[in-house]
Structures are given as structure tokens and as C-alpha cells.
Amino acid sequence: MRQSLPLLTLVTAAVVSARPSARAADCCALLSAIYPDKVAYPGTTAYSEESGNYWSSTCTVPALTPGCYFIPDEVSEVSTAVKLFTDNECKFSIRGGGHHSTPAAANNDGGVTIAFSHFKQRDVDPVNNIVHVGPGNRLWEVYSATDPYDKVAVLGRYAQVGTGLLLGAGLSYLNNPEGLSVDSVVAHEVVLANGTVVVASANSHPDLHKALKGGGDNFGVVTRYDLKIFDRPHNVLGGLVTYGEEAMPFYDDLTYDYHVNAAVNDKETHILPQWAFNGATGKRESFTPCYYGKDQPNLPPSLQPWVEVPWVHNTIRNTTELAPLAFENFDGYSNGDAQQQRTITIFADREFFHEVSERWYQFSQRFANIEGFYALHCKMPITPFMIEKGLQAGGNVLGLEGIDRPISILYFGVTTKNLADSDPVFAAHEQFVEELRSVAASRGLLHRYIMWNYSGFNQQVIGSYGDANVAFMKDVSRRYDPTGVFQRLVGGQKLPQ
Ligand SMILES: Cc1cc2nc3c(=O)[nH]c(=O)nc-3n(C[C@H](O)[C@H](O)[C@H](O)COP(=O)(O)OP(=O)(O)OC[C@H]3O[C@@H](n4cnc5c(N)ncnc54)[C@H](O)[C@@H]3O)c2cc1C
Ligand SMILES: *[C@@H]1O[C@H](CO)[C@@H](O)[C@H](O)[C@H]1NC(C)=O
Ligand SMILES: *[C@@H]1O[C@H](CO)[C@@H](O)[C@H](O)[C@H]1NC(C)=O
Ligand SMILES: *[C@@H]1O[C@H](CO)[C@@H](O)[C@H](O)[C@H]1NC(C)=O
């Protein structure tokens, strides 16, 4: 009995706080009149389940309660719904896996959120080396679809993350040999603002296809991704290496060497170099996913140094499946805490890598006493070869062409248990990243790019792609969404005005 009390309070709170505007109430009602079984209102189990499907509490509480969730099963239903939203000026959002931490990216207050929970298509075409992926899949589900074929798509590393990364950039086990995730999409099935369904590829609507490689939810609702898949050996090496304070003095040297050596010269390698400050212990720790796409008993010499420095736990093993690796990586990243992520991009530089880590460590220690405080930092390479692969696939809108050496995506994430504690942390976090940007710029190490997938809500992502790409995207938007539905009615990262 005592246990059921908080749940009851939660449900009541959701009902009370969801007071949709008259306009939004109309939109849910209009939709519900057509699809009564697919619209979930506050107070129902379906609504609670969908609002529990977000990684960060910044996406749901306190003021982000949609009037209803729309949970379609068919593309035609998405088409009807989007046309209805356009005709009635309904505010709406699109949710894949709900792992973006930006408050209004995949949810809204009082409008309709399309939840793709039922879009689970993941059909492998082993002859043409394509997997057809519905936007409601989590990455582990796509890995488990391709694992039996000894094939793999260019996907992220964490089991429960959704397909949104296919519209942003996409860091993956396969980046070094195959490039970014966006560049491995050979076709997007898209519902346009007027409800028309088109398949955008190199041969049909190539402008829309290109704009979606980095352009996120600015052009339409994607209802299917056709992704390239690649052969891999039946047995590969993969696992997670855990480090404690003892490894920290070595960590940035290893990370720098990975950026400029292994990632460039030994392309079957993949390391996700990340470490965190844990407020509860007052110590630093690292959980580093590692992958080598060859069948051999040991890591190659280029990765060997990662297991020669002191580690705490090491699960690198001979494995035939990638889905379990994705689960192992995700352990500890469960839903419901308050999260803010921010990112900038720099040219890889050994000395500056050390300085960034030291500054982040100093910053993190200030908040050790806040409940659930966790400060995660990653440095992740993008190499000139990865850009080249993107160009071979028809190009994207990220504006990364022309780099002559590896750049590094610097990720900074902060977590607090309670949203109520987050304001000062989030504000200081923003200040930290902006200061670091200035320092990087003054050293001549800043690259303008801001990766969508790790961006903060008020970081100018699209603007960072450069003027030519922005102009191109505005043109695509005018052609496919002449009344600006995806600019005005859908939140998140929009085209600069
Ligand atoms: C623990 C964790 C690990 C991560 N690991 C990686 C990683 O290894 N590699 C990497 O590249 N990124 C990674 N990310 C970042 C992640 O890729 C992005 O947060 C991504 O946006 C998540 O996609 P989603 O579908 O879960 O997000 P959602 O929050 O559901 O959606 C994000 C955005 O995409 C839009 N969108 C989603 N689906 C559609 C659609 N069908 N049509 C149009 N627009 C749509 C939404 O409107 C929203 O703006 C990680 C994030 C977390 C929290
Ligand atoms: C990745 O980038 C695309 C743009 O939003 C965006 O649609 C998707 O939500 C992003 N995912 C992340 C991780 O931000
Ligand atoms: C991996 O395991 C399989 C099956 O046990 C074995 O045949 C193969 O030789 C192993 N590979 C290596 C490199 O150890
Ligand atoms: C829908 O929009 C597209 C892109 O602007 C356009 O080509 C198409 O003719 C429109 N369809 C209808 C029925 O208006």
C-alpha cells in the first residue's frame, strides 16, 4: 500500500498540470475523432508509459506535458495526422527514442507528441545490404536484427538510444571505416507538411535527402530509414574497460593517440574515450567502450596501450553479437534524472586535451555535494576520411568538408538527481562551455561545428553548419514546407531566421 502512494500522486499531478490551451485540446480531439484508439490522454496508462520514455526529466517535467500522445501504427496515419496539424496550426513534436536532453526537442506543452513506439520495422535485406528501420526502434533492436547475418549498420553505441542520431550526425563503432551515421542512410521515407509521403534518396528528391543528413526535424517526419549494412567477421572483439583515478594521468595521451593514429591508420578500431566525475565518491572514473572489427585473439598494437595502463574491469572478448555490447555500454544511463548536454568541436591537440580535462575536473568538484551529481566528458574523433566517405555518399549539410586533420567532438554532460537542483548546475555548465570555446578560439583550435546530437537547447546547431549549408536548407524548407510548419509548430533546433 505504501508503495502505491507515490504512483498515485504522480498520476494526479500529471492530470492537474496538463491544462492544454483551447487550441491544443482541439487538436487532440480532432485526432481522437479519427483514431480514438491511438490518442492517449493524461491519466491513462498509455500516456504515463509514453511520458516515461524520455531519458532526461528536462523533457517531461515540470512544464512539458503534451495534451496527448499520438501512437500511430501506419505511415498513412502519420500522413493524416500531419496534414491535420498543418491545417489546424497544431503544435506538435516527434519522438523517436527520447534520448535527446533538449527540453522541447521531442516533446511540448499542451500540443500533440507523435510517439513512434509502434514503428518497429527492422527488416534486413542481406542481398542488397540494406536494413529498413522504423523510427521507433532502439539501437539494440537494430543490432539484434543484423547480428544473425554477421552484418552491422553505422549506429550509436548505447542500447536504448533511438534513431534520432540518423538525422543529426551519428558517432558509431563503424565511423573510422564507414563515416558518420547520417551518410549511411540511402533513403528516407518522409511525411511532408501537407501529408504527402515521399521517399528521398540520391535518385528521388535528392535535395531533401541531403538536407535530412544533419537537418533533423526541420523538413518532415521520417517514417523509415533505409540504412547500409556492412559485413563483419562472425567473431569480433568488443567490450567495456573501466578505469579509476590511477588511469587519469594517461587518459588524454591515449585519447589523443586514438584521434591521430588508430582512428586514422587502423580503421577497424573503435574507442569511445569518456570519463566522469562522480559526486557520490568524489572521484573520477571511466567506462570506455571498445571494439575491433576483426577476428583475432588480441587487440591490435594501436589499441593495446588502453589495456596496458591500470584498469579496474575489462570485458573485451570474442563475441558474435553487438546487441549485448550496446546493453553493457548503456548500463548506468537510465531514465529520469535531470540532464544537460553541451558540445563544441576543436582540432585534436594533445596539450589542449589535458587542459580541457583539468578544467572540467575543477568545474565538476564544485558540485560534488548535489544529490546524484555526475559530470561526463568525452572526446570523440571525426577524421578527414570520415568526411570523404560522406562526400562519396552524396554529401550532407554538416559543413565539415576541408578539415586536414582529425577534429574532436568535446562532449560535456551534467546530471542531477532532482530537476529542482539543476538550475545553478546547468547555468554554470553553460558558462564553462562558453569559456572553453573562447579559450579554444584564442588558441586557434576551435572548429565552428556543433554536433546536434550532443547540443544544448540554446546552442546554434544549424548555424554552425556554415552559410552555404544554411542557405541550402532554407531553400529545401521553402520547397517542401512552404508555410514553415516544421519551423513554427515543431520545437527543437530550427533553421536560423
Ligand atoms: C546515453 C546516451 C548515449 C548516446 N550515444 C550516442 C552515440 O553513441 N552516438 C551518437 O551519435 N549519439 C549518441 N547519443 C546522442 C543521441 O544520438 C541523440 O540524443 C539522438 O537525438 C537520440 O535519438 P532519439 O530518437 O533517442 O531522440 P528523440 O529525443 O526521440 O529525438 C531527438 C530529435 O530528433 C527528432 N526526431 C526523432 N525522430 C524523428 C523522426 N522520425 N522524424 C523527424 N524527426 C525526428 C526529434 O524531433 C528530436 O528533435 C547518445 C545519447 C545518450 C543520452
Ligand atoms: C541527432 O540529431 C538529429 C537532429 O535532432 C536530431 O533529429 C536527433 O534528434 C539528434 N539526436 C540527437 C542526439 O540530438
Ligand atoms: C572466437 O571464438 C570462436 C568460437 O569459440 C573460435 O572459433 C575463434 O577462433 C575465436 N577467435 C579468436 C580470435 O580467438
Ligand atoms: C505537397 O507538398 C509537396 C512539396 O511542397 C508538393 O510537391 C506537392 O504537390 C504537395 N501536394 C499536395 C497534394 O498539395
Automatic annotation (TrEMBL):
Ranges for domain FAD-binding PCMH-type come to 62-232
Cited Pfam families: FAD_binding_4 (PF01565)
The protein's UniProt keywords, in alphabetical order, are: FAD, Flavoprotein, Oxidoreductase, Signal
Name a GO molecular-function annotation: FAD binding
User: Does the entry feature the keyword Nucleotidyltransferase, yes or no?
Assistant: no
> What span is annotated as the signal peptide, if there is one?
1-24
| Gene3D superfamilies in alphabetical order | 3.30.465.10
Q: Which PROSITE patterns match?
A: FAD_PCMH
UniProt cross-references to InterPro entries, sorted A to Z: FAD-bd_PCMH, FAD-bd_PCMH-like_sf, FAD-bd_PCMH_sub2, FAD-linked_Oxidoreductase, Oxid_FAD_bind_N
| Family membership | Belongs to the oxygen-dependent FAD-linked oxidoreductase family.
Question: Which named protein is this?
Answer: FAD-binding protein
- From which organism does this entry originate? Volvariella volvacea
Lineage in the entry? Eukaryota, Fungi, Dikarya, Basidiomycota, Agaricomycotina
